[in-house]
Design goal:
Strand order of the largest sheet: 1-7-4-3-2
Number of domains: 1
Strand content: 15-25%
Number of strands: 7
Oligomer: single chain
Distance between the termini: 11 Å
Number of helices: 3
Largest sheet: 5 strands, mixed
Order of helices and strands: EHHEEEEEEH
Shape: globular
């Protein structure tokens, strides 16, 4: 299955790391991210730069076959959102590095 990174969060960066992290940086970070516990049935990964959450892309009314993720930059999100991602990834970090899938 093909995996891609959707960089919607970079359209209007608010500053901090997101202002310096380019699309190539986030794609490389996503490719080495570790798998975390799902949030609301969506896969989650943690990289060095950002968290990533599975998004759904549709062709007409049917989802595409490719897996796509959105970057979730901590400095661009509310503390409650970041905490949810931290909690989802806490077990993954304590267990050591894993394959992304």
């Amino acid at each position: 299955m093909f995996t891609a990174l959707l960089i919607a969060s970079l359209v209007a960066p608010s500053g901090g790391a997101s202002a310096t992290a380019g699309v190539d940086d986030l794609q490389a970070d996503f490719e080495t991210a570790i798998a975390c516990r799902q949030i609301e049935g969506r896969k989650v990964w943690k990289g060095e730069i950002a968290y990533y959450i599975q998004s759904y892309v549709y062709e007409g009314e049917a989802p595409t076959a490719e897996e796509v993720a959105d970057a979730v930059l901590p400095e661009d999100n509310a503390p409650e959102t970041v905490k949810e991602f931290e909690e989802a990834c806490a077990l993954a970090e304590s267990a050591g590095p894993h394959a992304r899938r």
